[in-house]
Known about the structure:
- By secondary structure, the chain is an alpha+beta fold.
- Helices cover 18% and strands 38% of the residues.
- It has 19 helices and 47 strands.
- A hairpin with a 2-residue loop joins strand 23 (610-615) and strand 24 (618-624).
Amino acid sequence: MPCAQTHAQAESPHEGIEGLNGSAYFDFAFRDTPNIVASGHIEGALAQAESELDGDSTDDGQSSGTGLMGEKSVDDQKTSIVRSTSSEAHFRVSDLILHCTNAFCESPENVEALLRSTGLTLGHETTKTDLAISIERLRKTGFFSKITQDLSFDGSRVAVAFNTEPHTFVRRIEIDNSGALYPSEIKKKMMIRVGGALYPRTALLKGKNPDAMEKSELIAMALEDQADSLRRLYVKEGYFDAKVDIGIEEVETNRVDLHVNVSNADGYVLGKIYVRGHKVRSYSEIESLFRSYFSYFGYVKKTDIEDAVQEFIANYREAGYYQAKLDYVSRRVKENRSIDIFLDLHEGDKWAVEFDGNESLSAKELSEALTFQSSGYVDQGELAASIEAIKATYVSAGYYYVKVTGEILRHGAGDAHSILFHIEEGQRVEIGQIEFDGASVFSHSELLDEISSHEYSALGSGAYPQRAMIADDAAKIVDAYRKRGYLNADVVGWNLATTDQVGRLKLTFIIREGEVSHFAHRLLRYTDRETYDDFDVLIDKPENDVFSDYTFRAERAAITKQLRLRGHATVSSQSTCTSYTSDGAVASESTCDVADFAAACMPDDIEALCQIVETRSGTMERCKRHYDTEYGIEGEPECKPKNGITGTQVDVTYDVTLGPRFVFGDAFIHGNVVTRQWVVEQDIPFKAGEIFDINRIIDARGLLRRRTIYRTASLNAIGVDDGLVQSSESGDSTSLGERSVPLTVNIEEGDRRWFDFAIGVSLTGGDWVLAGEMEYVEANLLGTGWELRFLIMPEARFFNASNEFVFTQRFNQNFFTLLTLSIPIVPAQGINLVSQLFYDLRYIPDTNKEEAGWLLELQWNVNKALFTALAFELESSNASSFGVDVSDSLSDYNACYPVTFFMKCPFASKKQDFTVSLTPRVSYDGRDSPIAPKNGFYTEAKVKLAYSNANGLYAMPEFRVSYLVTFLKYFTTAFNLRWGLGFHKSDATIPLIDRYFLGGLNMRGYDNDALGPRLYDPSKPGIATNEAAGGETMFNFTAELRYPIWNNIGLYGAVFVDMGALTQSLPTDGTARDYFRELFVEEMRYTAGLGLRWQFSESIPPIVVDYGFIINRRRGDPVGNFSLNIGYSF
């Protein structure tokens, strides 16, 4: 491949650069200049050039010094790129050249984009630090495994050339032999990904310079690292001898396929167990116990052994041997593929625990709180910890005044030692009343909402007092006051007193509110600009202008946000505050931190500041939140908020360092092995030159990840925070000007195509139906991001309701096929085009029809909730009847088998109808989850405007709304309403295929399409068949209550009521009262029933089983019916 070069020259001459006309890659040199600089000696050349500028050049012109990119590691290179002082010498860039053999560089536009990514600009000034940064910026574009830099100086001018060697990218990964693991599992665990570069991880390059290494060495290092990683995976799974070989096959220039081959992936079973140190239990007991922790099936893993050791020790300690310890050594025996384990056991002494005075809590409950078993120690420290744990257990059960003591009793050899706990439970109490003494800013209910402690309620959870919770509540109250600007507010303590009601306490928080603080003046100034913005223009001031830590930080964040939206991505700010007392005296000067109590004011043990006192009304516990003076501090200063803002009027100065203004630069895309580049660019909602905003990068990443054709996607900005300072052509610094930010877009393509097949049996209306489903999916058609789906769904009835075998008879099959092409038009805005070709033949359960047509729908996902679409459809159909005329219905058609003969089904020609329609629809999904909603609403409206050659113009509007609300955390009420009303000419009707139908999931208890008018057999006038004729007016309402049965496994119950009516058409000569009576009185049907919902995962639709009872049965109606569905129908 020819070497791609770009050569740009400034107006000031710098002549004689060789290689501009396609010279070989390594032939690059600067000619006719006194300083020829070899790759890897940049720093020395720069030092020499600087000395020349200072008038101190050497005679031989040779550079000296350590090469910046020569012997240093990658980490050293990064740490060495540090901005020096302002006296750093500047050089004007006279030439920029890129030597590149990458296929990407065959386009001159791409070469120019790569040069722009370096941050160097022809004719502008640069420094040695910027030159080093430019190499790293070029490396981050992701195209090159090695980069060196050649520099040539001519006085104050420098010509820069980048010598590169391209990365080798992975086109495909083939798992030739995966041993015991699935190939898909191996691919998920691989660090090397399809579309990625074969390059070592940063950790492997520590202490090494990749630019000084051969490319083959770098690739070998990456492959060996990947093989080691996979070997560790196999070892973790118990395949200790597994060998992993990764072969490489070059398929294109700088593109390879990897072949992973795993051998010797045989596992080990549990072998012999050797034990020593056991005295209490026999060898057979120990061996049997230890083996019980391993599975009888599968191989032994290292984690299995570690888990077994932990279980074994837990078993000993549960038996009272709290100090038991176990060491082990494992040995693999390759001859019989087993693992022998050697156990070294120290059983220790046995301890018996006794509890005295426990009446409300059992010994088992209290034993679970002890710390001896988890720590493995029995001493005074663990005794004290266990006492506190027992007290905490009692307090959480409402025994606030419990007292616990303990002692350790050691007995003679051979006897179990004793641990005794003496308990005085006291009375069980709950908080019956909470008061806030001194509160005027907040209402009682507002403060109750801030804290965790709550008053006793018969329907609520236990309101047991706990010191730690009350202390935390006091801190929450202080925080609430400070958010409202009361910076000196304090909860000095609380009282917990008995009341006249037995077992009820009154909790009183003692509050000192203090005065509220306000913003007095604000000043916004820029440290790197001579101009400034008016604060009121930049952000909106709060209405009451109260100063608090919350409002101040929100204000500072708003300033930063606004400036970042202007492109200043590296903006930073420092703030200073001066506060004044109400009389104008300076109260504090600080960095705007809110004053707080010193650490020495807060107790380590809350109980240390609590005391029990007797009052006229009973017993009271008084607690202070903090000491009065700083505990343990010499001089004991008063405990009050300090080291921050304490005044009531606050002047704030924001000193903002803007930094440069950033715009989006070029985007370099990697990983698109099949996907066309323009497809990836469709999901990037910004262009080069637009203002840089990190939120837009996050949006682009979300759009890419939303595409099913990508397994992963990431975007990274280059050079936002690298400190590069580029000077203008005139020499003025443009570090505060505009800088371009290149991006790398890294994607990993997912599966491109797959085939699904399913077969099953269903019971429909008493008929047994054999059903199949086959679907082929091309998810990324020709790399365009288009999705092609081909679906075939054949069905055949083999037993009818009378248990007769009818598989070989006529009219016993259905056949449906659908070809769908989905085309993203503007994916970043959610605009897609869907084209569908369909064919549907229905002979079972009853309705005979044949449809074929084409649908074209333009879809727009306006946002996550709002969806709109406009569909155009052409359709040809045959049906047993297009109306409900008694003389125009069933005929004795011959059977047709489209799969076998592809023959035209013999419907009478007069039955054929051609329809053209336009269907706008809009929906809004405000539910909290589309899979398992608990709250919110969903609404959808659509209208089909159609013309058929048999029926003329007609319209079929339909409206649906559902609403869900959850109460008491787990109980959900759900409502769903559907309504439809067809319009047509008075002398025509609506085709059967477009009518409304009811029954099944929307009217549980009835079979599918069981409601509404029936068709008639002309041979038997007046006798309705079981064939649904549909209706032109439809009403359907459902109310459902879902309640938990076994919440831990996601099992819920449901009770529901369904109601619905389906009538032929609107009355032509009746009144609205007649219509209402027919629809809501005469034809309204009611069902009710019970159901189960199994929601075993929030991301998977639940299994829904219902049984509905028909309330107002009519002749021929069943008592009820079961229904089964995957997912909620509303």
